[in-house]
Write a structure and sequence with these properties.
It contains eight helices and five strands; from the N terminus they run ααααβαββββααα. By secondary structure, it is α+β, with helices and mostly antiparallel strands. The protein has a five-stranded antiparallel sheet with strand order 4-3-2-1-5. The longest helix has 19 residues.
């Protein structure tokens, strides 16, 4: 029987990382340093960083073990198995933060409505006037007679005390606080509607979306780019028009 035959027992990524952690701790102890942290690999202590780097290099040199990839693999598994944050909580947190910053901010209202009906009269009468942001309409359970499909909107108050619900496309300001709020409110809905399931909003997603849908929403919400300019449309006030921008045709 050949005594030189070696049996290669494959280790899982978790076993590789756990073994490397033990090696790093032994190395630190031999250097007279008692490590008390949870993981050597995530420590910001210079000695721990050096020890982990040494173990990484030794394993690579000894048997070609790719410790960096093993760590990345288990961290990916941990992320995938972690509880998914509710789309509603993630969305409302962004809205709350930006609304607090924009509370009381003055914007210009310009109605996109064309029909001169009695119902639309209040909007036409105040079109072109300044208004103050006083709230948002995002949760279908809290907005009477509003279906999630027709949300979201912002609530504004005019100088005569009249309050209306206005869509983000009807409000105009170059203030970064408004643009951030506009992004959080409308973008949070847009992200849900762009998912493969075509959810009507984050509340619909929370009720009927899969874990994968919710993870995709959370990732897209965090990567969402901020709106940098006001709506460019036929109802856009002249002072907010951007030269060369294509305008949407109203319906």
């Amino acid at each position: 029987m050949n005594g030189n035959i070696q049996v290669n027992v494959g280790l899982t990524d978790q076993e590789v990382v756990d073994g490397a952690e033990r090696m790093a701790r032994v190395l630190l102890t031999s250097l007279g340093f008692k490590f008390s942290g949870e993981f050597v690999r995530t420590s910001s202590n210079p000695r721990a960083i050096t020890a982990w780097g040494a173990v990484t290099a030794m394993l690579e040199e000894y048997n070609g073990t790719d410790l960096i990839s093993a760590v990345a693999s288990i961290e990916s598994d941990e992320l995938a198995s972690a509880p998914v944050e509710s789309p509603v909580i993630a969305f409302e947190r962004k809205v709350t933060e930006t609304l607090q910053a924009a509370d009381g901010l003055k914007v210009v209202f310009s109605s996109m409505l064309q029909e001169r009906s009695k119902h639309n009269a209040v909007y036409h009468a105040h079109s072109g006037q300044q208004a103050t942001i006083v709230g948002v309409g995002i949760n279908p359970e809290q907005e009477q007679a509003w279906d999630e499909e027709f949300l979201p909107f912002l609530k504004v108050r005019f100088e005569d005390g009249v309050e209306v619900a206005a869509f983000g496309e009807e409000l105009f300001s170059q203030d970064e606080r408004f643009l951030a709020l506009h992004t959080a409110v409308t973008g949070g809905y847009a992200v849900a509607r762009d998912l493969p399931g075509a959810f009507v909003g984050p509340y619909h997603l929370a009720r009927e979306g899969s874990e994968a849908d919710k993870r995709a929403y959370f990732a897209a919400l965090n990567a969402m780019e901020s709106i940098t300019e006001c709506e460019q449309a036929p109802w856009t006030p002249m002072e907010f028009r951007v030269s060369g921008s294509a305008q949407r045709t109203s319906v």
